[in-house]
Amino acid sequence: MQEIIQLIKQKASDYKSEVIEIRRHLHKHPELSFKEFETCKYVCSKLKEYGIEFQDGFVKTGIVGLIKGNNPNKKTIALRADLDALPITEENNIDYKSVNEGVMHACGHDVHTCSLLGAAKILNELKGHFEGTIKLIFQPGEELLPGGASLMIKEGVLENPIPNAIIGQHVYPQLEAGKVGFRSGMYMASADELHVTVYGKGGHAALPHLTVDPVLIASHIVVALQQIVSRNSHPTTPTVLSFGKIIGEGATNIIPNKVSLEGTFRAMNEEWRAEAHLKMKQMAVQIAESMGGKCEFNIHKGYPFLTNDKVVTGKAKDAAISYLGKENVIELELRMTAEDFAYYSQVTPSCFYRLGVKNPGEEPASGLHTSTFNIDENAIETSIGLMAWIAVCELE
After folding, report:
1. CATH code, 268
2. DSSP string, 234-269
């Protein structure tokens, strides 16, 4: 194993510049969820260039590649990257700034995709040094419900061959480049979208007694629903309820007929998640009716919680320590953010880890989903080498 780790490190160093150029191309040409047609063509061209067997057309823009080592039926490990970008206008002043207006790789999926391509190139060149098969999953639509992972699974991405484990990574802008983080067990929350419409009776704001004010009703609902978290959830069950959008198209002197609310509900327990859905609907409807209005409360059920398998994650963390040194591997905290990689974690032993990409001297770091997000590209060498090494170790 000492021989192969040195070979991987050397190749990661040799291919760093090439993979950075791949990343910059992807960053410059981002595409929205389930519309990654040019991205798909580009990834396929790279796989052809590397001589890697693949099949495209999964959920239209998804790709699955196979690297077969010695004794390919012994064990299969899957590696996953997501392809899509976000509807954000980039504000970075860089040569590879997005040329697609209003679309940006603000969540690091360009890094994930180039990293998997780089790791694939390394692994394909070293396939005579390990036993088993490595499945490469380039997945569309992570950012948009119902999530590309769920659709890829329905189309058989975890079959022929069936992976014994699946590994994914995500950039982490608060962690310095050269470092990575792991967490065994429960890691990320489920995520549901809340779409609420409150109906009342509009009128002149100076004559509120002649109206049924949906703005006031909606305000009561927003405040009251926080009791779902503060008074109903168990202290050991992390829960988040937030509303980020309220639309009431009245004016300073006009009470509107309706108000729309949009929010998110996050949890880490499926029984509590279902119970909370019922409680929120009942509370909102009853408040609206008690104040003379009506309420439609729709929940778009999103991604499940993400859990990291203890054995798979333990091996991956040990691999990272042997590759980077113990001082460069941290323990991650629970996150209330969500990821559709969770669908894989529900059916296959999984490990989803974090790649440090923080630029030195950037305080504070630009966060994910912001118009100024970028990375320290030195993280690319760490990313491609470590992913290749983790895959080899998981095959043992």
Report:
1. 3.30.70.360
2. -TTS-EEEEEEEEE---BTTEE-SEEEEEEEEEES-
